[in-house]
């Protein structure tokens, strides 16, 4: 995807006909948590590719989390980096641009091939070499090179010393370790070939697979890593085209778990259903408005900024959270959600927590902007959930209620939307973000880093920090470089606070809401609460019945 984070696609592909699952429906799986009874998980998240080089989305990551090992990983319930395939990883004391990992001895893939440092180096190098448009190569921008210095040692050379974010990148979509004997170095391996190759060393392997219809996972007895042994021997993932069908099956208890994505109304209804448990955990999903600094309204940079500030003073996040999302989302007053180390409420500090028409009018008046300002506001109805229409209708009402704006609200299907916003077609538009890893930098650098369309930088096409233009911001670049390489927690968090203050003052993005993770389970399902943590990894190993 165009890197607004793995898994923002909320619409899945074809639902599986009920016949294939009739024999293994939730009602036919019995036993306690020690029996390893099979579990069926339903989702609307589609899989782009099982091969890590070809995907950067939640649906694919959900499969990869189960079947691949990583050098480091997050145990259920924490965001503490823990060795997985590695026994240890650390910065070299004599050269802090070197990050060195030692591989555990005796590791193997499910096909019997050894897992060594050579496989690890191969895995990261091929992601960069293939550089698939749907892949995670952008996550490895901090990596200059990687090599296996012997069978048990892999050395990453980084662009900056003591990069505090790089260890967490190892746990992302860029981190799965693949078998160099079965994965090609220069192209993505298709899903059926990946399943047949069985080059998996994670807690599960794939026993049966029909893409975006059915995936059956079997516990891997050879797995030796962060998650420990699977509590359930067989987990079946069933894919749905429509959330209403997913809701019906979990309500009827034809499946055991529903994970991504039901509407707020559906969740509220299921909370009242006997035998059904709604489990909520840390999330980090961010919903926000992006301004194209080149094409948005305003005759000068000063006028454009005044319009952005006036909009920031006119939205009512709490109203949207309550009326549209039934409080499954909460107001976001920073691009860094509450709960992340270093998060502030810079937008609340600057613009307040409720609409202020007088403050908004003053921003416009001081810049010589004549009201009402016409805002062409674009949103997507099929990629960020079915409530996007209600959300942006509410934003339109709020802005127009101030008397300062006239909103031309438009929607476009995702296939066209993703192309057009990258082609500067939208002056003001909706985007969303899921974290790659639980660190404040992951909500800042992807949006604020120096941007060169021919090379790299922030993915939103906002033109913020666009090199060699009036939108370049050397000070922001310095602040980002500082926080990424600062090993002192207090000092780093102070710098993160300065970044958020600067972002609130410049408003290239307008944060609106942040969401929790929600999973629905039938009575007798245990472990959902343990895996719904800020790492945003849904671990089958935590589940039992």
UniProtKB/TrEMBL annotation:
**Gene Ontology terms: biological process:** peptide transport
> Which Pfam families does this chain map to?
SBP_bac_5
What residue range is the signal peptide?
Answer: 1-22
What keywords would UniProt list here?
Signal, Transport
Q: Where is the Solute-binding protein family domain?
A: 81-453
* An example Gene Ontology molecular-function term: peptide transmembrane transporter activity
Q: Name one GO cellular component term.
A: periplasmic space
PROSITE patterns attached to this UniProt entry: PROKAR_LIPOPROTEIN
Where does this one sit in the cell?
Answer: Cell envelope
Primary residence: other
Q: Which InterPro entries match?
A: Peptide/Ni-bd (IPR030678), SBP_5 (IPR039424), SBP_5_dom (IPR000914)
Similarity comment: family membership = Belongs to the bacterial solute-binding protein 5 family.
State the name under which the record lists this protein: Peptide ABC transporter substrate-binding protein
What is the protein's species of origin? Aeromicrobium fastidiosum
